[in-house]
Amino acid sequence: MHFELLHQDKSSQARAGKLVTDHGEIETPIFMPVGTVGSVKGIHQHEIENEINAQIILGNTYHLFLRPGTEVLEAAGGLHKFMNYNRPILTDSGGYQVYSMSGSRKITEEGVRFQSHVDGSYHFFTPERAIDIQRSIGADIIMAFDECTPYPCDYQYAKRSMKMTHRWLDRCFAQMNNTEPKYGYEQALFPIVQGSVYTDLRQESAKYIADTDSLGNAIGGLSVGEPAEELYAMTEVVTAILPKEKPRYLMGVGTPINLLECIALGIDMFDCVMPTRNARHGMLFTSEGIINIKNKKWEKDFSPIDPNGTSSVDTFYTKAYLRHLIKTKESLGLQIASIHNLAFYLALMKEARVRIIDGTFTEWKNMMVVKMANRL
User: Fold this and answer.
1) What are the angstrom distances between the C-alpha of 295 and each of 260, 285, 290, 291, 371?
2) Helix axis angle, 155-178 relative to 199-210, nearest 10°?
3) How many CB atoms lie within 10 A of CB 297?
4) For residues 319 and 324, what is the distance between their CA atoms, to the nearest angstrom?
5) Per-residue pLDDT tens over the stretch 42-62
6) What residues form DSSP beta bridges with 375?
7) How many CB atoms within 10 Å of residue 37?
8) Per DSSP, what are the bridge partners of residue 113?
């Protein structure tokens, strides 16, 4: 795997690059749809590739470990073959799920004991086991096992947690070096910067992660309830330290506005459940602003969902029809809304890349941020 930095915006830190993996090339900046259990919820693989135009998707180590389990995935030849998807896949390490299950897990230096949300059974993840599971899943990019701290978070706790995340990272690298990919293609490990919203901790963690000289680097522990200003401030602190020649992945972010502002701060890769989760509740991100399709104002609106949209559903279906489907809880409505939102996110990334290359990114970004805040 390698990354080429192709263009740098003159009036911001925005970058356009190309990340090359054994399953294909990824043009950055890029958004990765979340396929938690080996499926982007409610969407066929051919729609991921041809309607949404995703170049890489994300799978979840915790969920895939519980179901279908590594035995099934290994028998299938890895997640790519199991789900018949031939483009790059990234897996998170399970650290975020551990964070979100604070009531049913215990963290020690050795690892994390947690209770399955499926059947109540207990399991133990160590950094080594997180690497082994991701080897079995077969992702192109695998994430280091870390602790994602909550917000707000006490400074001393954040510092202890960050130090432990660094020690866990050393163990992740050792396990990577002691094992081989199972399916004949390269797997790259990305370490994760932590440190909550404390500038000195973020700087210390970013330097530690930069010194590992990894193929790429991630920023975790943000988008966990902190104000947007804190998200941007911490991102700026970290991107100033992480090496420019490596891809930078901001985990779990976010709204279209978040994405545009963080691209301007030098981020290359994003993932978030928001486009699909919000779609299932009737919130659409469009070229002119945000639509709550459940509102009565759309009941007799027979115009296309988004006349400027890039997927076929945007002009094939009307707002009134989609509203009817969502209101009646028809599964087709959830599917249409999810395809629309994800296609919008990917089109936004593609346009950002074009603007970075042609030198108009900042002006375009500032205009789009105003549009994206508009509730129609």
Assistant:
1) 27, 15, 12, 9, 20
2) 10
3) 12
4) 9
5) 999 999 999 999 999 999 999
6) 290
7) 14
8) 106, 124
List strands edge to edge, sheet with 188-190.
Answer: 57-60, 89-92, 141-143, 188-190
Give the percent of the chain with pLDDT over 70: 99
Q: Which structure tokens are listed for 328?
A: 């009646």
Contacts of 237 (CB under 8 A, 6+ apart): 199, 202, 203, 206
Look up tokens 């970004």; give the residue: 365
Tokens of 25: 């090339």
CA-to-CA distance for 221 and 97, rounded, in angstroms?
A: 12
Amino acid at 56: I
Q: Starting at the edge strand that comes first in sequence, how are the strands of the sheet with 105-107 ordered?
A: 105-107, 112-115, 122-125
Do 16 and 29 meet the contact criterion of CB atoms below 8 Å apart? yes
Global confidence as pTM: 0.97
Report the Cα 341 to chain-centroid distance in Å: 15
What's the pLDDT at 248? Answer: 98
- Runs of H (alpha helix) within 58-215: 61-66, 70-76, 79-83, 95-100, 127-137, 155-178, 199-210
Summarised one tens digit per residue, pLDDT across range 181-224 is: 999 999 999 999 999 999 999 999 999 999 999 999 999 999 99
Regarding beta strands 57-60 and 30-32, do their DSSP bridges make them parallel or antiparallel, or are they unpaired?
A: unpaired
Catalytic residue numbers, as ranges: 92, 271
For residue range 73-101, what is the model confidence (pLDDT) as tens digits?
Answer: 999 999 999 999 999 999 999 877 766 77
Q: Do residues 215 and 246 make contact, with C-beta atoms less than 8 angstroms apart? A: yes
CB of 192 within 8 A of CB of 148?
no
> b or e along 229-238 (b: 16 or more beta carbons within 10 Å of the residue's beta carbon)?
eebbbbbbbb
Integer Cα distance of 196 and 224 in angstroms: 10
Residue 2 tokens, joined: 């390698």
Token pair for residue 64? 């895939």
> What does the alpha-carbon distance between residue 326 and residue 294 come to, in Å, rounded to a whole number?
7
SS (H, E, C) 120-151: CCEEEECHHHHHHHHHHHCCCEEECCCCCCCC
Residue type, 301: D
CA distance 134 to 321: 41
Q: What are phi and psi of 250, to 5 degrees?
A: -100, 110
